[in-house]
Amino acid sequence: MFIVLLGPPGAGKGTQAQRVAASTELLHISTGDMFRENVRNNTELGRLAKMHMDKGELVPDEVTVQMLLERIGRLDAVKGVMFDGFPRNVVQAAALDEALRSRGDSIDRALLISVRDEELIARLGGRWICRSCGHLYHERNDPPKKAGVCGECGGELYQREDDRPEVVRTRLDRQKPSAELINHYRSATVLREIDGEQSLDEVTRLLLEALD
Ligand code: AMP
Description:
Number of strands: 8
Mean pLDDT: 94
Strand content: 15-25%
Order of helices and strands: EHEHHHEHEHEEEHHEH
Distance between the termini: 11 Å
Strand order of the largest sheet: 2-3-1-4-8
Bound molecules: adenosine monophosphate
Shape: globular
């Protein structure tokens, strides 16, 4: 199964992708996580990506597509993938379709998580991430038991640079899935829309239901 998770920044794609991947055989691939890892390791790709990420803009398609295609070419991505944060536009969607088609696969489902702007802004300000294992928390919806400490591995929690309020606006403006992208999957009849303003468990349940 090859699944793409669509939704604006703050819709819960990362959290839900972790949950859905944990209860299925799917490999979770997040282009945002891949870029952040490159930034941490100060690679050439990381330095380039950071210039765009810090401003809330997308990293250029050419670079992103190349990184993603390299990743899905690895053995662990043969059986099934849950794509989180990719594709962000139709150029990327077409590149993914083509890569899958060349090996006899295709996207089975595109799950769109919808959330209103006001709610997205409130959410993006409260996110915390574990520096060691990447587990996601939210001050209001899913707080860690002990402030600043990961309940999964004891690692230190931090807030993303691009979750600062001034960057959040740009991310919402530039990174909402476009009507064109949504239509790309609607016309392939694989699109399912899920109301992302319900409890974490309920959204996970609906996503899993939409995969059956
Ligand atoms: P995310 O964790 O998905 O919110 O991604 C964090 C940042 O990484 C985004 O704000 C973009 O700058 C960059 N990024 C992640 N995925 C993509 C993508 N598919 N295309 C372009 N830029 C991306």
